[in-house]
Specification:
65% helix
Length: 340
Amino acid sequence: MRHALMQLTLLRLREFTREPEALFWGFGFPILLAIGLGVAFRNQPPQILRIAAVTPTLTEALAREPLLEVRELGQQAADDALRTGVVLLVAVPGPEDSVIYRYDDTNPEARTARMIADRAVQVAAGRSDPVRSQDDVARDVGSRYIDFLVPGLVGMGIMGNAIWGLGFSIVDARRRKLMKRIVATPMPRHYYLLSFLMWRMLLLLVEVGVPVGFGVLVFGVPVRGAVLHLTAICVLGSLAFSALGLLIASRARTIEAVSGIMNLVMMPMWILSGVFFSAQRFPDAVQPFIKVLPLTALVDALRANMLRGVGLSDLGAQIVPLVICLVLCFSLALRVFRWR
């Protein structure tokens, strides 16, 4: 029986490694996504905003501001530059020594340019601030977007590989009547399901190690928590989503049917669970629902461990939803699973 379980587990592994698409979406795609988003949202120096002024006096006043690149243009040329997006703002003299700022108030960069330009003009006119201020810029590792992103990609990868891997394999075996033949052999039925879990544990080392290692080596993403605790979180997450994938595939007979169910289950979690941006952006009314989603719990636990060094004893709010998902989905899957 041990030999039978080992052969079933190896069967799962061969099915996966012989599919180039599965290898790409399981391991290559998260890396490409991390590279693209990490470069797009990398830490950068303050952006220099390009504006225009139509008089030498305004140009001189605005040029003292280091965050502005000022061009002195004629009235018509300045309006054309604003219209075509060459500059964000045009400063023109108004009545009674005032200044008129022409800009698109729906553009966040233009609004920023307006505030900086007005500050420069007021300072040049002799304004003195009653309260002096200083900037203390903090750019700590762990607070960057790439640090936020990598744990989210790890959680998304665990969910996707578990649900898609189990769902497609089980339904395809049922469709080709392979499951019926396997069940006819002198082998306990639970070995067949156990082989999927053992296969998931074998893959877990790679599907977590690759994106985490890439993030650490290339972008310097911190792993401040204990590696043992990080491993436990990933194992629990993989088991929970494997149970969910088993439940999804327990009755489906066609690839089309199981694909629709899997997308229906995973799509809300991709959007709501804070993989690419904070879930706090959603209204307060849906926050209780978001908190009980298993992907939200997994991603929050990964970020707390990797970025803040939080241990398992302080992650009860994240572990409980994963345990409930594991027990509930696995119990229901065993009850309704269709062998034929």
